[in-house]
Every structure is written in C-alpha cells, then in structure tokens.
Amino acid sequence: MKHGVPRNEEAAAVVHAVNVRRRLGEWLLTLPSLGMLILLVGIPMIVILLTAFRQRTGDGWSLDAIRNISAAWETLHWPIIKRTLFYSSITTVLTILIGMPVAYLIARANTKIRGFLILLIMIPFWTNMLVHVSAWRVVLHPDGVLRQTLLWLGIIGEADYLLNNAGAVILLMVYVFLPFAILPLYAAIEKFDFTLLESARDLGASRMQSLVRVFLPGISGGIVAAAMLVFVPVMGCYIIPDLVGNYSTTIISNIIIQRALTDRNMPEAAALSGLLLLGMILAWAVFRVLRVMKNRKEGGGA
Predict the structure, then answer these.
(1) What is the pLDDT at residue 263?
(2) Contact by Cβ (8 Å): 214, 196
C-alpha cells in the first residue's frame, strides 16, 4: 500500500497534465473563431447599445431615444412587435409542417439519390434572397400569370390581389426559410430508429398513436432546432415585408431601417435594434431550455 500511494499520485498528476494540455489545445483551436465572433458580433453589439444612449445631434449622452420609444409604445411599437411575433410564429409552424414530410421522404429515400435531394434543398442557399423575392414579385404581380389564371378559374375576384398583403409576406417567408427547417428535421429523422414504429404497431398502437407518441418525441430535437433556425431569423427579415407587403405588414426590423436610413435617427434605431436583439436572445433561450429539458429527459430515461 505504501508503494501504491506515490504511484496513484503520479498517475493523477499525469492525468491532470493531459487534461490541461487538452483544454489548452481546445482553447487554441477556439481562439480564432472566438476572436472573429467578438470582432464581428460582440463589438458591433456594444457600439449599437452605446449609440442608443447618444444624442441624435451632438456628442452628448441622452435618454431621448428610450423616451420616444416609450411614448409611442402603445400606438406604434407594441402592435408592430405583436405582428413580428405572429409572422415569426406562423412561419415557423408552416415551415415545420411542410418540411417534415419532405425531410421524411429524403431520409427514407435510396442512398443513391439522397445526396441529390439534399443538394436540391441546398441550392436556394446559393442564390441571394433578393433574387428570390424579386422573382416572386413577378409571379404575384396583378398582371401576372398566376393571378390571371386564378381569375379565369373563378377562385379569386377582381378586387383580390396576391401582392402587397400579409398573405404574400407569409408565403415568401415560408418559401425562403423552408430549407432552414428541412435540414435539421432531416438530420433528426435520418438517425431515428424506425423499428420503434414497428414495435409500437405490434403492441397495438395505431398509426396516429405511433406518430404522436413515438416518432415525434424521437425527432423532437430536430423540431426544436428547426424552430430556432426559422423563428429567430424571421424576426429580423425586413426585405420580404418591404418588397411584397405594405404598411400593415410592417415588422420591427422595417421600423429600424426607416429610423436609420430615412429619418437618420441613429439612437432610436439602435434602441430598437437592442430591443430586437433582446427578443432574439429570449427566443433562443426558450428553444435552448426546451432542448436541455429534452436531453435531460432522455438521459434520465436511459
């Protein structure tokens, strides 16, 4: 036993040295990414938050931007924030509902064509969003083929338009952000053990029960990831409401652009940007908590 104590201490020292080297290596690998994150995200965020407390004209500090937002909160900003949350929520739900069957078909497809199908999903990422939106403006134009066809079929009336309304905004948001939902859903479905569905059916569960109690919980991580990847970017997507919407479809990011570029009121634009950033952080925190709870539940079940 006396000879075993030094050996144990020596082994512990070796393990500690290995752990220190491993952590040092991890930090060295992380430093470039962390530095870029601080430089490109952290510092600009600090500048924006400081700008919110600057005077609109002059070099002094002021709370005028905060007061202006508070004064117009009930009549302007709160309705727009509710609209932003509604568009983000409905877009998230629709992209998941549409993306789940697509992801399922890709995951269950033959391995020879699976890569090609994933490539088709990735292609929209190679094209600028502005190009997509501009193309849809042509499709939804009052004199476009789509509206004229719907008129001819009697589906819509002469007073109905497909452009510059909430329907067009939601349609374009779903179209643009659909790949963001399909990819994480595909990753989760591909890893799912489909023999569990067969076992559930053998135990007497119906197709719907197998779907709700086995399949959906099994891919819940992909659902949460898809929701986060869609919900958060939609909150800051000002291009779509600006090009295919109207005043009644304005979201908070459009107000920020207006304050910054049209009104040249940088403090108020910065304050609204901070408010939008806070909303994104809260949304991310909710999705993160859901994911942590899922992981703990799976760990406890294991």
Answers:
(1) 84
(2) yes
DSSP 230-292: HHHHHHT--HHHHHH--GGG--HHHHHHIIIIIS--HHHHHHHHHHHHHHHHHHHHHHHHHHH
Distance CA 168, CA 170 (A): 6
pLDDT tens digits, 2-55: 455 566 777 777 777 777 788 887 788 888 888 888 888 888 888 888 888 888
**CB 162 within 8 Å of CB 245:** no
Alpha helix stretches (DSSP H) within 60-194: 64-71, 78-108, 111-122, 129-139, 145-153, 166-191
Amino acid at 283: A
Rounded to 5°, the CA angle 232-247-253 comes to 25
Q: Which residues contact 142 (CB under 8 A, 6 or more apart)?
A: 161, 162, 163
Give yes or no for a contact between 66 and 270, defined as CB atoms under 8 angstroms apart: no
Helix (H, G, I), strand (E, B) or coil at 54: strand
Q: How wide is the angle at C-alpha 134 spanned by C-alphas 120 and 165, nearest 5°?
A: 110
What φ, ψ does residue 155 adopt, rounded to 5°? -75, -35
> Who contacts 235 (Cβ-Cβ below 8 Å, separation ≥6)?
84, 85, 88, 251, 252, 253, 276, 279, 280, 283
pLDDT tens per residue, range 107-153: 988 888 988 888 888 888 788 888 888 889 998 888 888 888 889 98
CA–CA–CA angle 242, 246, 248 (5° rounding):
120
At what angle are helices 129-139 and 166-191 packed, to 10 degrees? 130
Residue with tokens 């007073």: 159
Tokens of 198: 């067969």
Q: What is the pTM of this model?
A: 0.81
